[in-house]
Amino acid sequence: MFDYCENLWDAWTCPIWRGIFMDTSESLVVFEKYNAWACAMEAHPILGDEYRRMQQLYALVTTSVSSFSETQVFSESYQRVYGPSRYGWEVLFRRFGQLKAQLATEERAIGNSLLLPVQFRLQPNSQVAATTNPLALLRMAMAPFNSDVLVLRGQIEAMTQFILTRLMLAIDEAESEVDSGETMRYALNWMVEKFFVPGKSGTLYYAAALNGLRRPVSIKTSFEDFPKYMGPVVHYGAPPVRYVHCGDFTLPVMLDDRIKTDFMSVLKMVRKGEWAREQYDKHGMTFTVEHASDADQLARGILRMLYEHGCDVVEAVIDQVPGKPIDPNNPDTDPDFRARRLVFRLPACQFGVIMVEVNIQCLEEQLVATVSHSKANHDLYTVHRYRATHFPWRFPQFVYGVNWGKDVQGQDSEDWQRIAAWIRLRQEWKQ
């Protein structure tokens, strides 16, 4: 993604070069690094288009009638650049500020959970962090180039946050006006009604012996109490289970659900470099059973049930070849990672069309994804996915000081080694 290109943004040409002629050779170095970062963003199919439209928006708001309110200036200019909005002036202005605050919360959560060793270097600019006014944020982002790295850092922060918030707003406007929590509850209730055994539940106690990479080598389970297990590293758990119909018998399953936020959807689109016409994984459920054979059977049972109840099945990944990545187009996928995935649309209801992604896994596969030190670990997989796309763009090294790539010898940078070591340490705390 971050290849250098020759084009410069016209709106910044004069202020940039005026600053360079007046400043020192050190300023020229800062400019060259900034230029490489900026040109890479301009070349990106989504980020570049967003920046060009942000320029247009800035030009409109700076030439608007001064007697208009900020709310009217921003909302009218926004709709001229990005198209009609289903929100009114006041709501559009306020909604942008709400999503910007949500963005800050989610970025802070990523920092606390995945980037703690370098988080002190990623602390937000106080002025940018305190701003929920989209016009003020836009003005900060479009200020003339300044070779002072501290000033430039605030400017880049305002720019990247404006773009991310704008993309979140685009997703927010494209979705149903119904709250995602309500549609998730409807999807869960639909699955429970069609598939679960009424009133039957329990607890699955397990003890798993882990090897040096913290991958399970042996697992003992019981529905009465923790099984006795002796070994160097043992992971214990006692998740609640419910029972589902699977042909002529029932299976105990652990059920987890999640709603994908607009921010995570934006990160995925930026990583792929394309707009998603439909958020197929907005509503997600994960079924976990004891054994791999049970997971295969359960996946086929759910698929059969979906067809019987008139669901539109978009994707069904069930049969997998051992040692082959589940997604051959994804270089970050561990060949040993296993998951059966079903993507489908529920029958039309009062909320319109709801798309659901269901993943089915066995207990061993769940432990690999949560406590192992391999690439199949979900947290390690996540940071690797955004290492080459989101982190270098959002927190460029020349202003934040974090090396997201490799050193001169081609090895992972010291910063990156600390991040990976921290995530592995967190897995041990889960023991």
Low-confidence stretches: 1-22
Structural class of the secondary structure composition?
Answer: alpha+beta
What is the average per-residue confidence, as pLDDT, rounded to a whole number? Answer: 85
Classify the helix fraction into a percent range. Answer: 40-55%
Count the domains: 2
- What kind of assembly state do the chains in view correspond to? single chain
Give the end-to-end Cα distance, rounded to a whole number of Å: 38 Å
Q: Main beta sheet, described?
A: 7 strands, mixed
Description of the molecule:
This protein is α+β, with helices and mostly antiparallel strands and 431 residues long. It folds into two domains: 165 residues, no CATH class; 250 residues, no CATH class. It has 16 helices and ten strands. The strands form two sheets. The protein has a seven-stranded mixed beta sheet. Helix 2 crosses helix 3 and helix 3 crosses helix 8. 29% of the residues are buried.
